[in-house]
Amino acid sequence: MTPREAAILADFRREGECPVDWTAEMAMSAGSGRARIILDLEWVRVVESWAFERREATLVEEVQLFDGPMLGNFDELVPATGNLKLRRSRAVTDYLARFGRFAGLTFNSPSQHNAGKHLRPGKRLEEMVAATTGGAAALFLHDHSADELRSAFWMWIDFAFGLNTEASFAKPDEENFAMEGAGPFWRSFLTANSSRFALKSMAAIGASEGEATDCVCFDVSFGARTVHAFPVTERKALAINPPGFPLLGVEFGRQ
Question: What pTM was computed for the model?
Fold first, then answer.
């Protein structure tokens, strides 16, 4: 790449880059590459909706995924950069209104949420099983940190909304997502004020309804911008996710 091409590419990136640094937002959570790609892909869709020409959105996609125009025509980026600059503010406002809800979420550890409702330090699993009968609150074995919750959250997003190998901003969600039923689930995350999903850990993480369990529910309040988690039985976990949607296994903090 010549110095001139590098300068053209830098100008285009400045006007065409996603307004949220999802890599930083996910704190490099293991396996979060596909989660970042779907959010970047949604940015390309928004760009396309505001662009003068559809080719501008295609170029944004190529630069994001391949670090430059696929045909190597850097001169094509010059007029596209000017057009993107004129529409960027509106595209950014549109994107943040729809997808910015995933940015800046606060993950509350069990000890932080509701005065430690789901935590009883020092209890053995057998004691927790007994303590959660009769409608008592579910209990965690450990006080999982905000970073542990964030990592599990983004790993689940990554697995649940992974893309197929031919994903494109031009395709509807049903064709982009690798997992059947992911499209409607994804759209519900973009419109609801609060959402829940359940995952399966690698080992017992606590107790719920008088049972030891390895399942966790994540409760996301997009209005309050907070996320907390609590143990649930496998029966409850299957009911939380949409019908037929699999209970995905995710490594969840300390076991």
Answer: 0.86
